[in-house]
Structure to design on (659 residues):
């Protein structure tokens, strides 16, 4: 299982490595949209987290910050 | 303890007094800024087939209080009724159990999974969060949280820092949260692995009225813009729980021999879990847009020192219908390997140090399928509804717990002003 | 009581001005008066050319409809245009949106009395090596960039105006 996790991580990084430079500041129109945020439906994710925390034995995961219009 | 979020890792600390003293949104003489309030209101209805159901309204309000500075407040009321599995196994004869108070009993018919019908509970939780720029490319999010129900209180605080690099294409986040919980179960804390009385004549052995638990969580994350239409996040979270981690209402059945369902002379023992738990999770999320549609996919690998490991796959596809309407199918698949001390039942004479028959610690899988519909009512408001079905099944061979089926319904109304 | 004293001090206009001036200076890049790269861009009317503004002070701002702080910058830029145009200030706001409809929608909500030019391919944004959105430049009467500033914050408005007035007096 740890091997699976490690190879998943490597794949992610490889994919990410395709363009780690990101985009120019003036090219963030798509990323600025609400539906492109990491947590676009805050109540949905709060309620889901709550349900699965009560019904399963795992926790942790999602964090905050990043993406968006990159303004200021 | 069913839909009760006993101790959710908290993230944010609020210094309300200071926050309200810090300026207002618009500098005088230049005109007002755009809408500074954002409100998200929702109602959730959760219902398990023949078991627990809950209604949960949530209101979240976010206000812009300065340049890139926000205050968020959330209020949740969680009203729960119904019954849930107490951990005992079904037998060929009817069974009688005492309620947590010890003042009454309930009976389960033969060949039926025992469910404790005592759960009527209302929980109220409030959460506040202050987001503030600290330096160029560095922001802090500070929060506090309080949750209260009749037998459980949770108080927490947290701080998160987000650092932008690389023209804000890369963000490092680090966070720390601390939670202090107190459990005061009905009838007192039972002495673990001692007998649950089957009549009201006897009282359970108790080690006190209440006990505490501390939870510490640490988060390390990277968010990376991959392209004009793609964003990824990688997080590692570490958590440590210490104190009373047992469920005071759950028991295990004790049988005379492995392979039979004949109950021993002392048929039921209260469960006992370790008093510490070290948790880890690795999480990856991707958001990608096609022409207009957006796909959101995440994977989490979790492992802890109770022997539990799990994989969570979650995917959402936002399909734009045009005219501000969208449909969003959702699929989630969860796979869990049991805790070391999980036992379906115990054998008389072979009682381990830690044991629990709570099916939520067992080998299980949860499959969820759902559909959400949303519509922009105006430029500043949106309405949406979602309906999901969830099925939990035990994995592995041998005598296992029955499936739990649940339905999730939620309506939302969000607006800016 | 002590806390209240500190906060009261922080609310004084002088303190606020000085701290935002320092913040603006910290965020601004002291470019040693390099010449502003020339460009010609379309507007709603006739094309604009930067060199043609020699002899005037130019506040050059790069903005987009999806940039939230830009909504706050428009009322301020209108105020700058209104107060200082006759002293020789030109407010030139270059838009980098690819979606013309989004721009029209933004301008309907936040009207501009100053000049708006269009750079949908981002060539001029590239030429100026923008480090963030929005980015603004102050160009003196001799055509040199004397200040560049990433982001727009209400708290910086007063000190930005101070810098404009200083350049106008030259």
């Amino acid at each position: 299982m740890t091997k699976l996790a490690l190879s998943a991580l490597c794949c992610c990084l490889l994919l990410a490595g395709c363009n780690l430079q990101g985009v120019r500041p003036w090219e963030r129109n798509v990323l600025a949209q609400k539906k492109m945020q990491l947590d676009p439906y805050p109540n949905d994710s709060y309620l889901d987290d709550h349900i699965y925390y009560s019904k399963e034995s795992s926790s942790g995961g999602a964090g905050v910050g990043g993406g968006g219009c990159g303004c200021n | 303890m069913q839909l009760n979020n006993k101790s959710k890792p908290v993230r944010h600390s609020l210094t309300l007094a200071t926050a309200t003293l810090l300026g207002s949104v618009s500098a005088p003489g230049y005109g007002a800024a755009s809408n500074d309030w954002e409100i998200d209101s929702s109602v959730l209805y959760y219902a398990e087939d023949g078991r627990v159901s809950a209604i949960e309204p949530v209101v979240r309000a976010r206000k812009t209080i300065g340049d890139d500075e926000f205050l968020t407040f959330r209020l949740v009321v969680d009203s729960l009724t119904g019954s849930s599995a107490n951990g005992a196994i079904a037998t060929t004869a009817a069974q009688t159990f005492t309620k947590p108070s010890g003042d009454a009993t309930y009976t389960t018919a033969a060949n039926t999974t025992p469910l404790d019908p005592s759960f009527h509970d209302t929980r109220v939780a409030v959460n506040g969060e202050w987001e503030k720029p600290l330096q160029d490319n560095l922001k802090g999010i500070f929060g506090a949280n309080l949750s209260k129900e009749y037998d459980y209180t949770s108080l927490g605080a947290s701080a998160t820092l987000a650092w932008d690099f690389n023209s804000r294409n890369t963000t490092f986040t680090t966070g720390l949260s601390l939670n202090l919980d107190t459990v005061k179960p009905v009838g007192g804390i039972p002495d673990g692995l001692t007998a649950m009385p089957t009549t009201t004549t006897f009282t359970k052995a108790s080690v006190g009225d209440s006990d505490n638990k501390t939870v510490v969580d640490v988060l390390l994350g990277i968010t990376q813009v991959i392209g004009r239409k793609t964003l990824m996040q990688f997080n590692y979270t570490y958590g440590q729980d210490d104190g009373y981690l047992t469920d005071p209402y759950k028991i295990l059945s004790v049988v005379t021999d492995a392979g039979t369902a004949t109950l021993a002379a002392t048929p039921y023992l209260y469960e006992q879990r370790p008093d510490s738990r070290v948790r880890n999770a690795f999480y990856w999320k991707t958001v990608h847009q096609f022409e207009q549609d957006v796909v959101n996919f995440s994977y989490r690998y979790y492992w802890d020192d109770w022997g539990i490991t799990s994989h969570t796959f979650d995917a959402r596809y936002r399909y734009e219908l045009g005219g501000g309407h969208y449909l969003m199918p959702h699929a989630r698949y969860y796979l869990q390997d049991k805790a070391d001390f999980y036992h379906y039942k115990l054998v008389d004479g072979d009682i381990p140090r830690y044991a629990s028959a709570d099916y939520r610690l067992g080998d299980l899988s949860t499959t969820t399928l759902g559909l959400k519909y949303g519509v922009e009512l105006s430029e500043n408001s949106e309405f949406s509804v979602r309906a999901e079905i969830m099925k939990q099944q035990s994995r592995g061979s041998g005598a296992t717990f029955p499936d739990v089926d649940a339905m999730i319904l939620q309506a939302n109304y969000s607006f800016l002003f | 009581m002590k806390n209240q004293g500190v906060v009261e001090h922080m609310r004084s206009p002088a303190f606020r001005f000085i701290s935002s001036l320092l913040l603006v200076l910290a965020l601004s890049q002291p470019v040693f008066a390099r010449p502003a790269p020339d460009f010609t861009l379309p507007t709603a009317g006739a094309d604009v050319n930067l060199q043609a503004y020699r002899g005037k002070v130019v506040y050059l701002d790069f903005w987009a409809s999806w940039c939230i702080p830009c909504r706050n910058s428009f009322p301020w830029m209108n105020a700058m245009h209104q107060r200082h145009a006759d002293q020789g200030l030109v407010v030139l706001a270059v838009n980098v949106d690819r979606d013309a409809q989004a721009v029209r929608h933004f301008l309907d909500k936040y009207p501009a009395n100053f000049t708006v030019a269009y750079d949908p391919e981002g060539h001029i944004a590239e030429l100026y090596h923008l480090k963030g959105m929005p980015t603004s430049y102050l160009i003196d009467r001799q055509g040199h960039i004397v200040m560049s500033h990433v982001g727009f914050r209400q708290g910086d408005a007063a000190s930005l105006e101070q810098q404009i007035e200083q350049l106008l007096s030259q």
